[in-house]
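$ ./design --mode recover --in tokens.txt
reading tokens...
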């Protein structure tokens, strides 16, 4: 989902006289590989450059291709999360050896490719976007070597992000902090996806004037031609979750709330359903059995983007989950905007922060704290009552127009022009 932000920037920037050039890694196919977005950019004339990488995922992919040449993974439902010893080893390597993250071995390849692109295309501005934060190291090095203007776009926090940056020792923390501060100090413009992230980097850079907020959003064009797809018959009340459930995020509070509701109202067992467009951990799969929810929960798995939209538009209530361990005080997921655009009400299982504030400010649904099972159950009960009365509605398109991709790209383009548009350090206007 995070990639969609930068893809849409690239798609709409030409309308505002900025020509995007994309530097990314060579594609490797996985369970959620979907190349239609990049193909769409290429068809619209956006130049896409790819470099190699020595990151562990790339090496693993190359070894599999070498020893299993006939095996090529495509997008599949993939209902169960991977785990076990390999996952533990990968987590250890990520936390102890790879700084800032496990894509750091892409940096030398990207820098060399970036230098060639800059020498030939002469862009006015370099824009790096994270996660991974290694992309910002590429931006920093290219800025130092070429003296181009540089924009650092933070889709997630850096040290604020406890999921990706669990520093095991004070030395690790000091190294991460030093890299983060270098990026904050040398970037000519810093974009945060939420106000808390923007404020944080304003303090890190000692210059709040160069820090702005451009939220995530949605593209109305992605939703227009998609017909709603009902996960269950119309006589069932359908809750739907779409997206990744990665540690520490889990479906546990939602499952327990549904179990509590059914214990109080057993008659609802034939009238309520939960569809999960995700992969589940063994823990969640075992919990479904322990709570006797096998007939309630429908495991759909990962789907291509437009199929996800169809399911979202066909559900009754869309569920958003953010664990307290993910630092919800700074998070604004991409998913919440896709949910808003789907036109269905949202059940936000999330603590205080930007996502909760957005849902409540738009009257887009109901929110409940992640660890408050009775509160979640009560919210589901209220939604069910509204559904029975035919009064279940989402947010009107007019209220969320400010979050359209075109409007957000216009904001970016105006900032680029205001700050760098009269650059004399380039022969062409563009952004890489």
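writing sequence...
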């Amino acid at each position: 989902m995070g990639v969609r932000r930068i893809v849409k920037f690239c798609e709409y920037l030409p309308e505002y006289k900025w020509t995007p050039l994309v530097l990314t890694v060579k594609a490797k196919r996985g369970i959620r590989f979907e190349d239609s977005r990049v193909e769409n950019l290429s068809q619209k004339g956006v130049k896409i450059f790819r470099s190699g990488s020595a990151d562990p995922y790339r090496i693993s992919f190359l070894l599999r291709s070498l020893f299993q040449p006939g095996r090529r993974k495509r997008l599949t439902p993939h209902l169960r999360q991977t785990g076990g010893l390999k996952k533990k080893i990968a987590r250890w390597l990520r936390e102890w050896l790879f700084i800032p993250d496990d894509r750091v071995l892409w940096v030398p390849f990207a820098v060399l490719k970036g230098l060639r692109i800059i020498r030939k295309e002469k862009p006015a501005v370099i824009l790096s976007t994270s996660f991974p934060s290694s992309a910002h190291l590429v931006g920093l090095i290219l800025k130092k070597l070429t003296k181009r203007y540089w924009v650092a776009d933070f889709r997630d926090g850096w040290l604020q992000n406890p999921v990706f940056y669990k520093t095991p020792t004070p030395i690790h923390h000091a190294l991460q902090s030093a890299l983060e501060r270098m990026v904050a100090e040398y970037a000519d413009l810093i974009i945060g996806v939420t106000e808390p992230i923007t404020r944080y980097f304003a303090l890190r850079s000692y210059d709040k004037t160069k820090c702005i907020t451009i939220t995530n959003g949605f593209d109305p064009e992605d939703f227009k031609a998609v017909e709603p797809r009902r996960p269950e018959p119309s006589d069932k009340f359908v809750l739907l979750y779409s997206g990744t459930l990665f540690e520490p995020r889990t479906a546990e509070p939602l499952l327990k709330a549904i179990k509590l509701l059914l214990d109080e109202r057993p008659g609802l067992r034939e009238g309520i359903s939960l569809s999960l467009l995700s992969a589940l951990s063994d823990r969640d799969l075992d919990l479904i059995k322990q709570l006797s929810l096998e007939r309630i929960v429908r495991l759909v798995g990962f789907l291509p983007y437009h199929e996800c939209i169809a399911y979202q538009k066909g559900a009754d209530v869309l569920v958003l989950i953010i664990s307290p361990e993910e630092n919800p005080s700074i998070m604004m997921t991409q998913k919440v905007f896709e949910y808003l655009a789907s036109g269905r009400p949202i059940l936000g299982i999330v603590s205080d922060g930007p996502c909760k504030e957005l849902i409540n400010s738009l009257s887009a649904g109901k929110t409940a704290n992640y660890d408050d099972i009775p509160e979640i159950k009560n919210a589901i009960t209220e939604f069910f009552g509204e559904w029975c009365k035919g009064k279940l509605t989402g947010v009107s398109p007019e209220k969320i127009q400010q979050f359209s991709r075109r409007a957000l790209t216009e904001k970016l383009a105006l900032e680029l022009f205001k700050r760098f548009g009269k650059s004399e350090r380039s022969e062409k206007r563009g952004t890489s």
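exit 0
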